[in-house]
């Protein structure tokens, strides 16, 4: 089988905006769900899709806050969704299914990064639970309205370079590291897209993951200024210091491109960055560029899918006890 994990020459790049990648596309009448669509990259994604004529449903943990954030955006609906709470995920999905409208794009955008050790649900590590398990459950539950033709976009990150799936200790039961936990959750996002595409393509459901770039958004809420200075993101005065950072409009572009680009027709299971399919990290000449082999491995993806099904009780696959 040909290796499709290589740039297409999309015509877009690192400074393209979400609106730019949608220019000229006829999306009127399409329906999208954007998780976390009220803040950061999600908000810019919602704005761009709505402006292009897409009807957008935003899943937000605090719908009142979301309503204020999006009060001037037409064509947007808001519903309660807490990805760290399976009961909330089930209730949100049930309301979508009751509405009965086909979903053309599911953009799994919401997430948390480098938070203090937090346990949710039955003791799950919060980053793995929120970034991956919640979206895994949501996508499976929404299958009836995705079936027949949809794109599912998982917002991963170059942070996946920090950690493969830690099969020896997925829940960090033996020592927590906030960056390794974040890295594992972002690898999980990429592997989720690999396996979802594998089982969905015959039903017209294609999946992609992506790195949006470095952007200042509420995602950094758990980081202190001194940590961001140490990373080189801010200077000693607290001002932005890294010229490779994107604006939020640029940061949202790759997920919008992955959800809509005709260049991706017939493709799937790929990791994207800078509004194109990414190269493999092993072929890159810089750190944190491209996608690691472990994040596109179909066997790893299948194993993670089975574990996720076991943990959530959702997904029509055999259960496994392999961690």
TrEMBL record:
Keywords associated with the record: Oxidoreductase
Domain of life from the UniProt record: Bacteria
Gene3D superfamilies on file: NAD(P)-binding Rossmann-like Domain
GO molecular function, one term: oxidoreductase activity
Keyword flag Acetylation: no
Record flagged with keyword Electron transport: no
InterPro entries: NAD(P)-bd_dom_sf, SDR_fam
Family (UniProt): Belongs to the short-chain dehydrogenases/reductases (SDR) family.
UniProt cross-references to NCBIfam families, sorted A to Z: PRK06196.1
Protein's recorded name: Probable oxidoreductase
């Amino acid at each position: 089988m040909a290796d499709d994990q290589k740039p297409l020459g999309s015509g877009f790049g690192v400074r393209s905006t979400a609106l730019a990648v949608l220019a000229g596309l006829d999306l009127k009448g399409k329906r999208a769900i954007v998780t976390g669509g009220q803040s950061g990259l999600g908000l810019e994604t919602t704005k761009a899709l709505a402006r292009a004529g897409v009807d957008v449903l935003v899943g937000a943990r605090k719908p009142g806050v979301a309503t204020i954030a999006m009060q001037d955006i037409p064509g947007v609906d808001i519903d309660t969704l807490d990805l760290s709470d399976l009961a909330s995920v089930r209730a949100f999905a049930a309301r979508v299914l009751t509405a009965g409208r086909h979903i053309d794009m599911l953009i799994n955008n919401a997430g948390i990064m480098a938070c203090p050790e937090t346990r949710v649900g039955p003791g799950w590590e919060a980053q793995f639970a929120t970034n991956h398990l919640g979206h895994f459950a949501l996508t499976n539950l929404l299958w009836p309205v995705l079936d027949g033709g949809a794109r599912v976009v998982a917002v991963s990150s170059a942070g996946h370079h920090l950690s493969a799936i830690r099969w020896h200790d997925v829940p960090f039961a033996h020592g927590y590291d906030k960056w390794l936990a974040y890295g594992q959750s972002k690898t999980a996002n990429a592997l989720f897209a690999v396996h979802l595409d594998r089982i969905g393509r015959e039903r017209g459901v294609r999946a992609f993951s992506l790195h949006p770039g470095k952007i200042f958004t509420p995602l950094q809420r758990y980081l202190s200024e001194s940590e961001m200075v140490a990373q080189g993101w801010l200077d000693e005065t607290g001002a932005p210091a890294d010229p490779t950072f994107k604006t939020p409009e640029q940061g949202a572009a790759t997920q919008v491109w992955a959800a809509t680009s005709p260049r991706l027709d017939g493709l799937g299971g790929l990791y994207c960055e800078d509004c194109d399919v990414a190269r493999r990290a092993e072929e890159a000449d810089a750190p944190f560029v491209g996608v690691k082999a472990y994040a596109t491995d179909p066997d790893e993806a299948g194993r993670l899918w089975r574990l996720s099904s076991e943990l959530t009780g959702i997904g029509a696959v055999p259960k496994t006890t392999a961690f």
